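We read letters as residues; the fold follows as tokens. A sample entry reads:
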Amino acid sequence: MPPPPPKWKGKCDFNFTACNNKLIGARYFTSGNGTPLDDDGHGTHTASTAAGSFVPRASSFGQANGTAVGVAPRAHLAVYKVCFDGRHCSESDVLAAMDAAIEDGVDVLSLSLAWPEGPFAFNAIALGAYSAIQKGIFVSCAAANNGPSHGTLANVAPWILTVGASTIDRKFKVTTVFGNKMEIEGEAVIQPNNFSQNFLPLVHPGKSSSDPNARFCTSLSGIDVKGKILVCERNEAFAVAIRRVEKAGGAGVILINQLTRGVTKRLEYLLLPTIQISYSDGLRIKSYINSTSEPVAKLSFQRTVIGDDHAPTVAFFSSRGPSTQSPGILKPDIIGPGVNILAAWPVSLEGNELRFLLGSGTSMACPHLSGVAALIKSVHPNWSPAAIKSAIMTTADTINLANNPIEDQNLSPADFFATGAGQVNPSKAAEPGLVYDVEPNDYIPYLCGLQYTDREVGMITQQKVNCSRVLSIPELQLNYPSFSIIFGSRVQTCTRTVTNVGEPNSSYVVKISAPPGVDVAVKPDKLDFSKLKQKLTYELTFTKLLNVTNSNFTQGFLTWTSSKHLVRSPIVALMDDWEVIGNV
């Protein structure tokens, strides 16, 4: 690694030599427990995901063998500790840390933390992020883990990249074969080498017990567990239940997802062989158990397998839009890998030199996008944070590996309140063709249009603002790379301005895939550029068609296509008051 750039002003708060040309800064704040050292692993995991160097022979309990590397391995890294024990975080510390990072000279801020969303003027992350983008610093934030219900997002300010979580095409596969020859695929981190290859008795404690907790295996009264495979339904106390099965001599556990989790398998480190399966597969297993007096099963541990045509799917926990603070801005912006991600950990869980852990959450997705932003910044050092965000969003993938629309945790097509623009595609994001740029002061008319007071807009922008002298704009008019139309009136209009960052002489033709129930008109329908950095503006008219759809919202795309580039923007049309959608 080269030394830090001359602009770097940061420092190391360790009381021993720990910083180097990779870790160039480490600071702690009031909630940092007196040291920048990581208390619980969360910061280590996210930091290594964003910018970790190449580490050969990485794995976790024999899974995910290979060379581990962060998204931007040549990037310098500075860490700012604002949480203690993973839960105790203060907003004042977060804001102080963001201000310190700005002064230190960072290029990208990655925040894998969130609070319940409130007005931007009283949200520490939104305030700190605005100060960052004023200095040209890109800000990427976790969308929060409150899905799959709508209206559960955090970090939704339009100057922030809001990141949801998706799966990758790697599995830690276990196949269960049942006495009726049915096979069901599940996953497990810890996979023994010497597990019995014979059929073992299969027991679902909830089948015959009158105890309502029996199905969770929290109560095993009167049940012979020894040498058997137990089918347990997941609840918040599942880890305690599995330890109880282990203590009673159970051979293994098949752990059934809750309905809301669908097919998302957020894997846990459980010493007793525990296979996590989807909710729908759990119904099939219970049906089999009910069909025979002597149910049996055997487990086949197949370890790490690459290849899942459903990938990426949106994780059940990934928070969904619409934004409660600004429903006229489509959020999240993007999804990225956030399920069972292998990254660094401060200590070894295996008692050896391997310090890695498989973690899940939008916290894991966020640093992937932070790393992508750093890569784009290295290629295009003069691009604004909004231009980088636009490049990431307009080049995102909208289909999975089977060439079907990206799916949610139920393997149904995911809506744009789950995916935003889609799954990040780093290689395409470096060359987007066109970008939707926004200067920091462009947010002032937007904020005034949201009815923030002069004082509140001033708190956000750190300048004196008089909204009565500002030409306020509706949310739809902000030069954003996506569209969220709220049909308060039947016809909505707006403009967008795109900047040419592709070939100097290029032409783009528009293609509309209109949301059902909406007519979309674009003028002009062709954009002809003659030079780089040239800006052209187009106008859109969205008209709600009467009696066409009963849906609360519908969705489509607007795409500008040239001979080399495809610049795609998602469109969501909210047919009813967004508060109705927030309670779907």
In short: The mean pLDDT is 94. The longest helix spans residues 362-379.
